[in-house]
Amino acid sequence: MTNRIKEFIADNLPKIENELYSLVQCIKAPEQLKESMLYSLKAGGKRIRPLFVLAVCDLFQNKQQEAFTVGAAVEMIHTYSLIHDDLPSMDNDDMRRGKPTNHIVFGEALATLAGDALNTLSFGILARMENVPSNQRVELINLLSIASGAEGMVGGQVLDIDGESRQLNLPELEHVHINKTGAILRFSIESGAVLSNASEEERAALVEYAHHIGLAFQIQDDILDIVATSEELGKTAGKDEKSNKSTYPALLTLEGAKQKLEEHYHFAIEALERVEKDTSLLKEFAQYIVHRNN
Amino acid sequence: MTNRIKEFIADNLPKIENELYSLVQCIKAPEQLKESMLYSLKAGGKRIRPLFVLAVCDLFQNKQQEAFTVGAAVEMIHTYSLIHDDLPSMDNDDMRRGKPTNHIVFGEALATLAGDALNTLSFGILARMENVPSNQRVELINLLSIASGAEGMVGGQVLDIDGESRQLNLPELEHVHINKTGAILRFSIESGAVLSNASEEERAALVEYAHHIGLAFQIQDDILDIVATSEELGKTAGKDEKSNKSTYPALLTLEGAKQKLEEHYHFAIEALERVEKDTSLLKEFAQYIVHRNN
What we know:
The structure is a homodimer of 294-residue chains.
Chain A: H1 3-25, H2 31-41, H3 48-59, H4 66-86, E1 95-96, E2 99-100, H5 102-106, H6 108-127, H7 134-148, H8 153-163, H9 170-195, H10 200-227, H11 230-233, H12 239-242, H13 248-272, H14 280-291
Antiparallel strand pairs in A: 1-2
């Protein structure tokens, strides 16, 4: 990780988390529900999605406070998806980021409802961003709904479950990841462009960057499942291979997956060349994603 | 049911259901996910919530097509909440409206995801109502998020689960229902007022009407669980008493619950007197809710 990225994260992480937690703490809701929502929000994670919203705003020298709100919305969506994914009827995971999963602590019913509430809240907080023009709020809500719903993340999750029972080919596997993890990452980057009134060309270039970063992110995830330890990952390593899951290394060998990762990294950087601004932070971010070890 | 209500329903029900189904059919998502979403949307139900959106628009002689879209959004939220409520970890219901519940047909994982996707889609379709000004769309999204999330329906569901382990008192029981079922009914009515540019006074009166109708609706639900047959209800009757659930009849006796129902019906009608328009349709609706037998 470069010093600039380290500094960028150190500067913004506390503000991201502060915004995220306050947006839940201030709602009037049963205490055990708020506790369950906050438990998973506070369970850590790299906050890559909110950091991307901020990094894109940074590119346009856009310092507006609402970038943190949009970042909180996308982190809520990400967190709800993890809570539901971990349920016994889905991935049946007991541990996440080194801690017991939500349903282990709060029970399945409350975990399901905490996920539902985070999903719903993310749209509410976007709707309430008073300093953002209504048409921009509507655009962000529309993009988030597409990215996180049946046409994006949830659809990808369905395809992923489907892929557990048979070996997917490479286009099918890409399709899963473009939806399951890519769509939300794309929203993180595109929302920064919307908030910053980026031109159509700039936005298209950033969306292409997002596309390749999303795939690179997932390939690195698959690689880490093989090469990293459970301790480094905060979850059980080697689970993909045991469960016969369709992964990039399974389809392409570990070496082939690493090569694919480099290709997407390269295309992501290339897309940034079309933005006539100082894109060095986003380039360093791409490198951080590709070379992360957890 | 009066002839006018019958006619109003006969006129609008096909359009409501057509809008509801097309909004799902047109999305690009895995077929099994769309099937699961459509299965529960098509499982029937009285469509009371969309009918309320339309009845309020009718009051203002507002014929805009988007009332059906808002109605579809609220019916999606209602349907997702039923899918999740029926899950084994929640109410564990095998039958709903005389048909096997979603998870019985599609499995728990897909049922959870279909619910998630409907929740998310409802916000997307509100955001995409091109003929409604952005500021109105934002207002509707904000209201729906509050009504359906931790501060409304989901919060009420948490309180309801809590109430299964102990006897609630009357204010606690009211609080459950104001959130669990009342908030969404209120949204149905308030959204019609927003779409129709109602004055503040009109809107406040309609919200008060909604408050009492919501409680009346729930009390009648509790009463029907005792006096109606399973066949009439399309679900297991007498379940509340068997599960020792906190209900109005359990707290107030059956007679006391019927009296409470009449009180709320009366207050609902009274609130409508403050709207200087022909509120007869909404009055007849209140009567229909209170005297329905399923």
